[in-house]
Amino acid sequence: MSGKKALAWNLLVPFFMLLVSEGATGNLFRLSATGVVLGTAVYYILYLGVFFFAGTTKASWLLLNLAVYGLAAGEYFVISFRERPAMIWDVLALRTAMTVSANYRFTVTPRLVFTFLGTLLLGIGSWKVPLRLENRKIRWTARGAWAGVTAAFDVLLYGVLTPALKLSVPMWDPIISFERQGFLLSTVLSLETLFPQKPAGYETETARQLLERLEEEAAAGADTGTAADIGTAAEAKAGEKPGNEAEILGRNETVVPENVICIMNESFADLRIFNGLVSGNSFETDGPFLSYYDSLSENAQKGWLYVPVFGAMTANSEYEFLTGNSCAFVPQGSIPYQFYTKPGDGSLARAFGEAGYRTAAMHPYPGYNWNRTEAYENLGFDEFLDQDYYEASGFLEEGEADGAADSRMTRGYLSDAADYEALIRQVEEKEPGEKLFLFNVTMQNHGGYEVADFPADVHVTAVNGGDCLGEYPKADQYLILMKRSDEALKILLDYFSACSQPTLIVLFGDHEPSVETSFYEALYGTRWSQVPGEQKRYSFVTPYLIWSNYERDAGDLGDMSAFMLGGQVLRAAGMEAGGFGYAVERLRGEYPMVHSMGLLTRDGQFLDVLETGTLDLSQTVKEYHTLQYYRMFEEKPE
User: Fold this and answer.
1) Could you report the per-residue pLDDT of 364-383, keeping only the tens digit for each?
2) Threshold 0.90, pTM exceeds
3) Residue 510 neighbours by CB under 8 Å, 6+ apart
């Protein structure tokens, strides 16, 4: 083939690789014109860079093609598993992902096969008719020109086109951008979220003085008895949907609990929240799945919790709960446990430890997942009982959990009943009179709801009035797991109801499950990527429960963000949260939901960040944002 034909072939390869890779992800015919144009530019910059540095397209472009295809195919599988594409930060969580991959079904579709063959064809063509830069001087000149063009494109993309065309990736639901802009362009756009951004006008000394002032106000409020009620105005009754007014029964916390047990239950959610969200849309089942949870009223406070993630990234929900920091104000898409904890960080564990409690974290999976071992140490836990403890104690062996008919292992994960058995053992083995704060993260309901021959006693029988038995097997399997979680919760609370030690138990879900996209789309009445933010926020809601085995307040505590719940735990235990906790409670009084997708006002108005452009819409939010940045990045441990 002549030099001109070789040049023509190789010049077409980057564009055709865009088409092939987006064909693999399934987004080819959803790309916008802007996505195609800018995506093409990104591909050419990438391929020319490899060519100029390698000096040839021969092997380099074949390997690059395979790498790009591998990323595209990976995106396809990740999205099919959790309805969220893999982001740049997920590279750090690859080890974690591998530990839970067994329950996911990898199905190679004809589209993946055809696009792989197209990838090979393009790569082999570049191998057979390569372009070469033989002259060393020309090669270095080309590299310099490429670097200059790349820098100019970066300035144009991030400084001009992104704000003008609103190209930023909404990290609370990045699939929107990936469908419209393509996976490689969206990945490039997400790079600007890698680094922490200071709040507008931030100054370290001002932040320090603000914290001191709020600590004084919190102390004065504690002396007069008003600090505990600062957020009462935000407490809204959950009812059928978040955002309604509520009435709290009493406010007197006189008993100091000997045990404070907080459980973040994997994928614990109540999908009935979608029933009636869109008029006429709902689902029905052939049996109950949260009947015990529904029945709880005595010494129980409930509500809806706005969590930062959907379908995955469990660690961010627990980070918010334990620290009071909002993931809305950290680099979007990041996992704070991996980068943003340091020795001496404030947390529930540290607060209870300073109050004389032994603090322990429990999780029946490897401690290195999400960097928990280091993060828990930084947050002040005295000990972390991970998979090694469960194995040594015999909990991961097959057999029946105490009080439950089911096996200790469910789909390869420890059942909730067995996990609670291990939790109870910690209470039974502690020293008489010893106070215990225990944070437990379960595994039973983890994603991958495709296990064959799983016992089925709950099914989705109708959606929007139409029969659909068997159409949503993932949703069916998930609801069965919810029923088992509900049964395990009864076993746990029955035990502590008969326990003489005053015990406070908190339970909440980390996120909603990744079941069939079509299930959610049927309830929303539109494609997932087309759901407006006002409705999409319901995909970030789980239930929470605060229960005690002694007499205390009961009722609907109201809806709130996950980072606000920790303050309610301190309050229920008769403790004060300090200056930062005071800032959180003030924020709850104004905006019960503070989320990367927007704010929810006290009267139920949703303010979409895609429309407002910022979350810092009031002085209260700005002050909280300032304090969070100060605590995370500048405050020194005492």
Assistant:
1) 988 888 889 999 999 999 99
2) no
3) 264, 265, 266, 267, 268, 307, 309, 314, 317, 318, 441, 542
